[in-house]
């Protein structure tokens, strides 16, 4: 009888640890994988857009694309680190994008950032909260806050390009190596998103 009771308790504990009762984090895992694909593709795409902007004689827009490309690679690395912490492998994929004129590339960048800011990251953040995956919450929030700034920077660049004033755009960007936060000009002493000291920022000029 005593042995039987112990057996029942052990079975119960095994059932809990095998997550018969714990909740699934499948949604968040799927979201992290999609975010890795999105950020890796954005990073490669913006690097190609920077090259195109240089070829078309828009060096200042090229700088912005370079800075954002760096930021997106930081987001991709953060998301990858979260997936690793969860002990899950990333499936292989190939970034796919098309390079057009700089004006069209800016329009595409605004479209991408807007989707991330209005739809993608708000949903991912909500699901990471529901799934209680705190590292995903941090990583998604770093990207979400940064994309809002990218959206604004790209909108300003497109306006200036259309107005024929590309040469008035910033000549220097600083990118936070922790969260990808992107400043036009000099960054403050500490990152406004992750509090990382300015000494750890990357300068693009
Ligand atoms: Fe990003
Ligand atoms: Fe971005």
Describe, in plain words, how this protein is organized in 3D.
This protein is 64% helix and 5% strand. The protein is mainly alpha-helical and 205 residues long. It has one domain (23-166): Ferritin, core subunit, four-helix bundle (Ferritin). A three-stranded antiparallel sheet has the order 2-1-3. The protein is elongated, with a radius of gyration of 21 Å. The chain starts with a helix and ends with a strand. The structure holds fe (ii) ion (2 copies). One fe (ii) ion binds next to helix 3 and helix 5.
Q: What would you say the CATH architecture is?
A: Up-down Bundle
Mean pLDDT: 93
CATH topology (level 3) name: Ferritin
What's the CATH class, please? Mainly Alpha
Write the layout of secondary structure elements.
Elements: H1 2-17, H2 26-55, H3 59-85, H4 102-131, H5 134-162, E1 173-176, E2 182-184, E3 201-204
Antiparallel strand pairs: 1-2, 1-3
Helix pairs in contact: 2-3, 2-4, 3-5, 4-5
One fe (ii) ion (FE2) binds next to helix 2, helix 3 and helix 5.
Features:
205 residues, mainly alpha, Ferritin, three-stranded antiparallel beta sheet, 5% strand, binds fe (ii) ion
Question: Can you summarize this structure?
Answer:
The protein has 205 residues and is mostly helical.
